[in-house]
Design a protein that fits this description.
Glutaredoxin; 2 domains; Glutathione S-transferase Yfyf (Class Pi), Chain A, domain 2; alpha+beta; 203 residues; single chain
């Protein structure tokens, strides 16, 4: 058993992104095991049979396999930027629920037999409300990023990437600027460092 938490992660997964960013901002030491989703490690599946990332295995073998729970755990260890003081659970749930629903059906319309433009419009309506929250401030909490920004922006980034030209032309301005700031941040850069897939034992 590792004497530090072990994180099973996938670089481009928005859930894993936010977990890594919370771990990094908390200063928590952990072992990063990058996962190939087509060839999931047996150790990860043994810890969390549902087979999705991220999965955090603590030194005492406790398993945390929901990204929001990983964020809360990391910040409970150390919260130097006071992210936990400004958690908006309702806003995060909106993006984890309705926004993610429309994002999936916009990005993977064929998989869901969905109308991509209708789902893009529904996602855009949610972003319009987010734009109102961002009026006259860089971040949802004011002058510095916090829990809510980090919890939801990976999904907005994914939405923007489906049709970057459309997003640049049609997405609300404050949302576009907020997303650009977060993607350009040092924290995001550190969270997105490329790591070779873990070469541990697999099935």
């Amino acid at each position: 058993m590792s004497d530090v938490p072990v994180l099973y992660s996938f670089r481009r997964c928005p859930y894993a992104m936010r977990a890594r960013m919370a771990l990094l901002v908390s200063g928590t030491s952990y072992a990063h095991r990058e996962v190939l989703l087509r060839d999931k490690p047996a150790a990860m599946l043994a810890a969390s049979p549902k087979g999705t990332v991220p999965v955090l295995v603590l030194a005492d073998a406790t398993v945390i396999d929901e990204s929001i729970d990983i964020m809360h755990w990391a910040l409970a260890q150390h919260d130097p930027q006071e992210w936990l003081a400004s958690v908006d659970a309702e806003l995060v749930a909106l993006f984890d629920g309705a926004f993610k629903h429309h994002l999936d059906r916009y990005k993977y319309a064929g998989r869901y037999d969905a109308d991509p433009l209708a789902n893009r419009a529904a996602g855009l309506a949610i972003l319009a409300d987010l734009d109102t929250r961002l009026a006259d401030q860089d971040y949802l909490g004011g002058s510095k990023p916090g829990f809510n920004d980090i919890a939801i922006f990976p999904f907005v980034r994914q939405f923007a990437g489906v049709d970057a030209a459309w997003f640049a032309a049609c997405a609300p301005q404050q949302v576009r600027e907020w997303l650009a700031i977060l993607v350009a941040s040092d924290l995001y850069e550190r969270a997105m460092v490329r790591i070779e897939p873990w070469a541990g034992e697999r099935d």
